[in-house]
Predict the structure.
Amino acid sequence: MLVTRRVFTAVSLLFTSLAASTAAFTGWQHGSSSSFRQQTDYNRMCYRTVQNPYVYFGTKTTYGAVAGNDLQTPPDCRPMQVWMVSRHGTRYPSRKKIEELKKLNELKTMITAESTMCPEDIVAIKNWNTNLTKEDHYMLQRQGVEELKSLAIRLKRQFPQLFNNPYSESNFKFLTSHKQRAKDSATVFYQSLFHKNPESEIPIVKTSDDRFYLYKCKQVEDDDDTEGQGEVEKFEDGPLVRSVVSRVSMAMGLKQNLSYENVSLMLESCKYEKAWYIQSRPAWCAVFTQNDFEILEYVDDLKYYYDSGYGNSIGESMGCPIVKDLIDNFKNLARGKQGPLGIFYFGHSPNVLSVVARLGIGKDDTPLLSTNFEQMKTRKWRTTFIDPFASNVIAVFYKCRDGNKAMILLNEHGIPMGKDECRICPWEPIEAQFNAITSNNQTCNLNMCKSSGALSSINLVIVIIAYIIHSLYI
């Protein structure tokens, strides 16, 4: 009976969304999808010369490809605080992946005279090499430095009333993950805001901090190790991914199919190099068509949907403590209390996705499954747009002539909220909307993760039951 109650409680949670935020996300993301659909499907055209090479690579998308430009201060308003959660910038692969990528040197020799690729693409692949070493393991890459630097500069330019103040621990709060790429991202951001190095090490999150230390709820710690759930494996073993493997093998002129693992290595090389060097034409991208990229992007979306999103029974709950931090800080300002001018957290994909899920952003009516790729082509849950490198959720609190207001942005896209779908909204309705979620100290914590092992085994059952129930009422 207890398990039954938990299942239907979870089902209820699954369809409890913040309708305004979800509708908002649909608006700006569909705008992005429009340009996405206009990308050239070059099939076997020459990748070296195609006009609009594909750039949408899930969590390894470069930030500039999807970032917005909605940071602003409305007339008759004064910004009082900027609150931000950010993923680290573009990075290098793991030590394990760096070693695996060396296998591409062997695979490039397998291209035959039957290849359907143009001569220029074949030459590029045959000339490809990697100079990565184990010392590059998960380190912040130069493009990642630029992403955090430029974000800090934009914030300072947009909100001089806040960021022209000198740094002090009372004025600006920083917290970072213990991972080097997050610490480096926080340091670059700090340097760009204040034109100096931090006087001491930026504070590192403690394991007892439910706001930002999510590893107690995770089976793995690093982005590349995300496994997701059974739906991911079903999709990878299914006909769509098999068709990608066949097309890639054919592009190389092979009579027998490559393994999916080898095709995945080609994709990894393509994705990373496109993120590191935005204007480049990575050699291994040439073996894929746009349709291939779209199918393989869905693999990434499935992984994070079941790992840190709505497909995880505790996905939304994981974001409660950090969203409570946001709401509590803004509530203090609304009540006339002094607060920091800026609050900045630097971490990883699960940190950003936990906030996204708790805010109800990117929530589809239909769950992502291994069997509904075609149906979900216009899905809201696309990690490309939600969680690229350097992804962030920024909230700004304003004191205005006509009252307190707030704005929430995802990757610098303003998220419309409330019935009016305003982007800069009166604060009181926002507080009321989130207060019910964050005010219960008994539930707004990560204590449920002690039993997450037992819950994880029924995650997919919950999603499918929820889907069936939802289908009966639409």
User: Anything to note?
Assistant: Confidence is low (pLDDT under 50) at residues 1-26, 30-42, 452-460, 470-474.
